[in-house]
Amino acid sequence: MLGFEIDIKKFFASVDHKILLELIEKRIRDKDTLWLLREVIQSFKSEIDQNRGIPLGNLTSQIFANIYLNELDKFIKHKLKIRYYLRYADDFLFLSSDKEFLRRHIDKLRSFLNNNLKLELHPDKISLRRLEWGVDFLGYIVLPHYILPRTKTERRMVRKIKEKINSYSFNQSLASYLGYLIHSNSYNFANNLKNEIWLLLAK
Predict the structure, then answer these.
(1) Torsion angle of alpha carbons 149, 153, 159, 161, nearest 10°?
(2) Counting beta carbons within 10 angstroms of the beta carbon of residue 179, is it exposed (0 to 12), middle (13 to 18) or buried (19 or more)?
(3) Which pLDDT belongs to residue 59?
């Protein structure tokens, strides 16, 4: 089985306000709600275009991203007929045992994004990998029978822990890191991290 990892270039900065509002208006009729959503959307201007962009990290942006990319989901499932497809925000992945099947859909996908959503595929973030090599998705390396955190993420965790050991945000940061590790097979790393923290606090 092969995994095709794909990313959209500067997705949050590229969301077209007009297209997003048209998609929302298909579902919502209340004028007051539409006015409020319009104010939220148009309050943000990206460096790409004054009529584009939603703020990265904003809670409403997560909802807006799913509304916007629901059009992509429908295209992939109903038009391209790709059976195994995963998406979280602007990161998405196809699975198939047929390499050529995956490759020949890239141009169709690129055309749909450009013409319908005014988005571009990131040219440097399209990769084809065998599942047994591990697929890099949502901050984890996903293998057939287990999941690992990225090596660079582990290194960053240790560095950040050392930087924040005496700060007021230390407990919050630690809880976040341990929460991340819960979703992977990281028992040994998590224990080593806790031991290192204990040694640092004991000094």
Answers:
(1) -50
(2) exposed
(3) 82
Of 173, 174, 181, 179, the closest CA to residue 147 belongs to 181
Instruction: State the 10-residue block means of pLDDT for the chain, 203 residues long.
Output: 81 94 93 93 83 84 92 93 86 82 84 95 80 80 85 85 80 84 87 80 69
| Contacts with 16 (C-beta within 8 Å, 6 or more apart), sequence order | 51, 52, 117, 118
pTM, to two decimals: 0.78
The β-bridge partners of 6 are 92
Distance CA 83, CA 105 (A): 13
For the chain, the helix, strand and coil percentages under 3-state DSSP, each to the nearest 5 = 55, 15, 30
Residue type, 182: I
Please, are residues 145 and 113 in contact by the beta-carbon 8 Å criterion?
Answer: no
> In this predicted structure, what is the pLDDT of residue 203?
66
Q: Which two tokens stand for residue 20?
A: 């997003």
What pLDDT score was predicted for residue 114?
Answer: 95
Query: Do residues 11 and 49 touch, judged by C-beta distance below 8 A?
Result: no
In what order do the strands lie in the sheet containing 147-149? 135-137, 140-142, 147-149
Radius of gyration of the chain (CA): 20
